[in-house]
Specification:
The protein is an alpha+beta fold and about 375 residues long. It is built from 11 helices and 16 strands. The strands form 4 sheets. Strands 5, 6, 7, 8, 9 and 10 form a 6-stranded mixed sheet that branches. A 4-stranded antiparallel sheet has the order 3-2-1-4. Helix 7 packs across helix 8 and helix 10 runs parallel beside helix 11. The longest helix is centred in the last third of the chain and has 32 residues. The two termini are about 35 Å apart. It holds the Pfam family baeRF_family3.
Length: about 375
């Protein structure tokens, strides 16, 4: 699931109304038996509220597109949230692997802040398992498999997952008896696996974690055409050919170390940027620079939320509001993230203990 692509595409939609509906759902039986009722109630609320503000014909168009999307919906495949984005001209439905506050929102664009913030702070990756007999590939989001690659995922130039090792059978019995020849055949097989992995990575660039025994992982790394996509590996496990859920649990310490190293690298970048006199710390200045497209990387302390008053003309930002003052935005950090992403900038969330005391948002300028 390419959340950044979903965000970019939906961000372009402007309509009155643009309807965003978030319905909590469940992954497993019997909890998901109640999901159809939750959905029905959310759609009833949506239609009722739309009729209070818009003409019937417009409401019928919106609800017609939504209902059409759910004609063949199977709640057995639900994840954590059903997200519905609809206008009088179209409707899109997504199964999100994360929780969003249930609500119905009408505006002239879709409510997407939860989506992009969740994506930016998630552990979203490929898990590639390699054994002497087969290679399997999974897309994992925050500890849950959101996609198992099957033969239905056709690749343009390479073999689809799962990929069985048939090379031993294709060679002569003399080759099989020779351990060196057999090892070379296994390397050839892993190179085929890697070519398929590289093609999939080009379509959605997520970090890859490889799991298998010591020799299988070592051979894969040696045969990879582009090892830079591999973020880590797991060899001390007995679950490679058993239960992927247990394998994900075994992988968690590797993931945590990877994420910590990513955040430490962001902190190092802050230090380098400070030395180059390209670091900005004043929130109002950061906001103005974000709107001007001057920010290369926005650094945000995890958990930091800042209701604020923003002057649309001067772009001045006031965060510490006096009692009784009403913010113009519930979270100016979300506004910053949106502005930086719109100009192809980068976002780095950093755990509080790695941030200097008193700092919540910093920015690296492009120039």
């Amino acid at each position: 699931m390419d959340l950044k692509k979903i965000y970019r595409e939906l961000k372009e939609v402007k309509s009155n109304p643009a309807v965003s509906i978030f319905v909590p759902t469940h992954r497993t039986f019997p909890d998901n038996e109640a999901d159809s009722i939750q959905l029905k109630n959310a759609l009833s609320e949506t239609e009722k509220r739309l009729l209070e503000h818009y003409e019937k014909r417009l409401v019928w168009d919106v609800m017609g597109h939504i209902n059409q999307k759910f004609e063949n919906h199977d709640h057995n495949y639900n994840l954590d949230t059903l997200a519905i984005f609809a206008t009088p001209d179209q409707a899109e439905v997504y199964n999100f692997p994360f929780h969003v506050v249930p609500r119905v929102i009408f505006d002239d664009n879709f409510a997407l802040r939860d989506v992009i913030r969740e994506d930016l702070q998630s552990q979203h990756y490929y898990l590639l398992t390699v054994s002497w007999s087969e290679a399997n590939l999974y897309e994992v989001f925050n500890g849950a498999v959101v996609k198992t690659f099957t033969g239905e995922d056709k690749l343009l130039d390479n073999v689809s997952f799962p990929i069985a090792n048939t090379l031993f059978k294709e060679k002569t019995s003399d080759d099989q008896a020779n351990s060196i020849a057999k090892e070379n055949l296994y390397r050839e097989y892993l190179n085929r696996v890697d070519k398929s992995m590289q093609e999939i990575h080009k379509s959605l660039a997520l970090p890859v974690f490889v799991a298998g025994d010591d020799k299988a992982v070592a051979f894969y790394q040696q045969e990879s055409d582009n090892l830079s996509i591999v973020a880590g590996s797991l060899t001390q496990t007995e679950n490679v050919e058993w239960d992927v859920r247990l394998l994900i649990q075994d992988l968690q310490p590797v993931l945590d170390e990877y994420q910590l190293n990513q955040e430490k690298a962001a902190v190092d970048l802050i230090g380098q940027t400070r030395g180059q006199n390209l670091l900005m710390a004043d929130l109002a200045s950061i906001y103005r620079s974000a709107k001007e497209g001057r920010i290369d990387t926005l650094f945000v302390r995890k958990g930091y939320v800042a209701p604020a008053q923003v002057d649309a003309e001067t772009l001045d930002v006031v965060v510490n509001l006096a009692e009784g003052e009403t913010p113009t935005t519930d979270d100016v950090v979300d506004d910053l993230i949106d502005a930086v992403l719109n100009t192809s900038g980068n976002i780095a969330f950093i755990r509080p203990e790695l941030f200097d005391e008193g700092e919540n948002v910093l920015a690296k300028l492009r120039y």
